[in-house]
Amino acid sequence: MEDLVAPYALDAAMAERLEGGAGWARRWTTAWKTAGADVVCPVQDVAGFPALASVPVRGFSWGTRQRHRPGLRPMLATGRMHGFESLAERRVLLALDFTGDVEEVLSQPFTLRFFPRDGGGEDHTPDFLVLLPGTALLIDVRPADLIKAKDVVKFAAAGRAADAAGWRYLVVTGWRRHVWAGLDALSARRRPMADRLGLERELLDVIGERPRRFGELVDATSLPAVARAHAVHLLWHRRLAMDLAQPLSDAAWIYPVGRR
After folding, report:
1. Whether 166 and 201 share a structural domain
2. pLDDT tens for residues 60-92?
3. Does the residue 166 lie in any domain?
4. I need a surface site. Which of 122, 207, 214, 258 has the fewest CB within 10 A?
5. Alpha-carbon distance 242 to 254, whole Å?
């Protein structure tokens, strides 16, 4: 996931504004919602919290005058719908579905209570907690031109909490060049497809010989017009590989998986 998004580095100066010293991970807390009750868990213990028993700490509401665009999006990786609060968050869900190693995604998973050095407690709700094999990824989503000074402090706090839990932390401010357009194009063929003509096998056999440009690859099959859709399907499911930093076109280089 980190390879797909625009680089964003946490501000070290802002991190210095946070409470430190012994016991900070006990004083900082995470507030979760479950079906039965609200639960508060210290940051020092959050890695062991049964996150799958939780529900979003904020509901997803719709109104005619609201400026953001919430909604629900299905993910093939989890087989269920996931809430988002903006179109930027919706794009993150699509990208997570593409990465292939996601076990679960929790929207607005908890509210972090943290303490700056020079003031009282502040709250921050990260946008997603992504459960991965053996670890997790905590994500905040904010377009670069909308990030304010208070957000930078909250990101620094979320990053410290994630580090204490042994998780990765990512702030998504945008996408690397061509990445979003490529993911959007590939996602059109993400759902299961019938392959009665055996074109996917043809595509895999052809690409197994050597890397080829997309147009050359599909033209080498028995039915190029139909093979195009199957090639995109194989790319989405990572059975073929391409460089998402390049536009998806007939000139794009396609590679066997695991070989570049």
Report:
1. no
2. 776 666 666 788 999 999 999 999 999 999 999
3. yes
4. 258
5. 5
